[in-house]
């Protein structure tokens, strides 16, 4: 199947991924209402909506990291908007930035021994937005937290690529990365390759992200990447495994 085969994606894929999601704030408001004496009419976000939302967040950052072709990915996902730079609309980008900043805040508090000062609401937003759908997508939860946390720093701005996880593990100039960081850089690439495999909802998306990643590897003279890896230590920044465990409790 070539990348033009997205039109023939079987149902119910298109029915699930071509929908307009309700704002993340709807879930946040409903959770606040459910934990107070007030009554409200906000409908909580469903598990399926949370899964679709998280998948879009992951794919957005992966596409940015490896300069994938956004129109190709958007068509494969059944997303209908005119942006050639993002898979997300303006509201979704604001929500992703909010979630990213929230993850960074809790990550910082955990590292500084201030976990008991974090609110139940903040923990629940991350648990509901990341931890629960991660189990359905079957992706690496701690890595997803780490990946989303980078968005607050780069916002998928081409001028801020240095804030990506790949840049963090591969020093500049990239062509020297394999000599300077060795296995750390390889593990980071393996982790991203496995994330592409796990997060892609169909082969058209997977093929485009794989094409972009291979072009990136070739351009920067890096080694070929095999995606199978189950070791967190090589590509997780300090504290994100602990954050995952703390929020999951």
Counting helices, strands and paired strands, the structural category is mainly alpha
Task: Specify Rg, calculated over alpha carbons.
Answer: 18 Å
The structural domain count equals 1
Overall average residue pLDDT: 80
Give the number of DSSP strands.
0
Strand content: under 5%
Order of helices and strands: HHHHHHHHHHHHH
How would you characterize this protein structure?
By secondary structure, this protein is mostly helical. It has one domain. It contains 13 helices and no strands. It starts with 12 loop residues before the first helix and ends with a helix.
Overview features:
globular; 13 helices; disordered N terminus; 60% helix; mainly alpha
List the helices and strands and how they pair.
Elements lengths: L12 H5 L6 H11 L12 H20 L3 H8 L12 H22 L8 H18 L3 H9 L1 H4 L10 H5 L7 H4 L2 H17 L3 H17 L20 H9 L1
């Amino acid at each position: 199947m070539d990348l033009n085969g997205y039109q023939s994606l079987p149902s119910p894929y298109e029915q699930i991924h071509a929908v307009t999601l309700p704002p993340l704030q709807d879930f946040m408001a409903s959770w606040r209402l459910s934990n107070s004496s007030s009554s409200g009419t906000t409908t909580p976000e469903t598990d399926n909506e949370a899964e679709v939302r998280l998948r879009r967040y992951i794919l957005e950052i992966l596409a940015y990291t490896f300069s994938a072709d956004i129109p190709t990915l958007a068509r494969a996902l059944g997303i209908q908007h005119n942006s050639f730079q993002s898979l997300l609309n303006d509201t979704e980008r604001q929500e992703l930035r909010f979630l990213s900043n929230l993850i960074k805040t809790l990550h910082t508090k955990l590292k500084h021994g201030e976990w008991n000062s974090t609110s139940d609401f903040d923990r629940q937003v991350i648990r509901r937005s990341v931890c629960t759908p991660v189990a359905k997508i079957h992706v690496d939860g701690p890595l997803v937290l780490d990946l989303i946390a980078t968005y607050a720093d780069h916002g998928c701005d081409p001028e801020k690529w240095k804030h990506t996880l790949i840049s963090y593990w591969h020093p500049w100039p990239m062509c020297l990365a394999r000599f300077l960081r060795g296995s750390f850089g390889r593990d980071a690439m393996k982790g991203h390759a496995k994330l592409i495999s796990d997060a892609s909802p169909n082969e058209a998306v997977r093929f485009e992200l794989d094409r972009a990643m291979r072009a990136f590897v070739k351009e920067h003279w890096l080694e070929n990447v095999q995606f199978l890896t189950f070791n967190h230590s090589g590509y997780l920044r300090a504290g994100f495994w602990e954050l995952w465990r703390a929020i999951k409790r």
